[in-house]
Amino acid sequence: MRYADTEACQSGGHCRICRDPEMGRKFRLLVLQDFEVPGGTADFECPHGIPWDTDVEVSRFARAIERGRAAAHGALSALRTSLGVGLLPRQAVEARLAVCRACPGGLAVMRGDDVYTCGKLLEVHREQGRSTCGCVLRLKAADADEDCPNGWWPRGG
Asked: Quick check: 78 and 139 in contact, CB under 8 A?
């Protein structure tokens, strides 16, 4: 398996240590024991283009990856919903949306008189133990495989 395909690499959480030529060498040697890396050596180039001795704000990189994942996940859920795959009964969907309308964390974004998204569209956000998913709630609520990131939706839809 390629290290670049792992959650650990894609999270951006190890970039600073990995991109430190000296201090990160031990880390990269451990990675090399279990994963394929570019060039097959401990001094591999970052598959995401992060330079050596980086002072790049890793959290910015991690957020970009997370937004991409959220968009892909949302697109798959929207596709499932539009194809009628794994839909919940209308009553269960409305029960979920009722929770969103009165969101305990005040995270729902309204459009007119109804809920639109959980936080900003396609913007995953975590703060004080609460998180938003950035999903279009009408679509997400209808998908039986989806859940509220804070666990506020009724179970067993």
From this structure: yes
Nearest residue to 100 (alpha-carbon basis) of 62, 37, 153, 143: 153
Q: What pLDDT, in 10s, does the model give residues 8-65?
A: 787 777 888 888 999 899 999 999 999 999 999 999 998 877 888 876 555 566 667 7
DSSP β-ladder status, 125-127 and 130-132: antiparallel
Paired with 36 in beta bridges are 2
Q: Which residues pair with 143 in a beta bridge?
A: 87
Distance, in Å, from the CA atom of 119 to the CA atom of 106, rounded to the nearest integer, reads: 9
The answer to whether 96 and 154 are in contact (CB under 8 A) is yes
Domain parsing of the chain, residue ranges: 1-56, 67-142
Closest CA to 93 of 128, 144, 35: 144
Q: What is the pTM of this model?
A: 0.59
- 23 vs 107: CA distance, rounded Å: 41
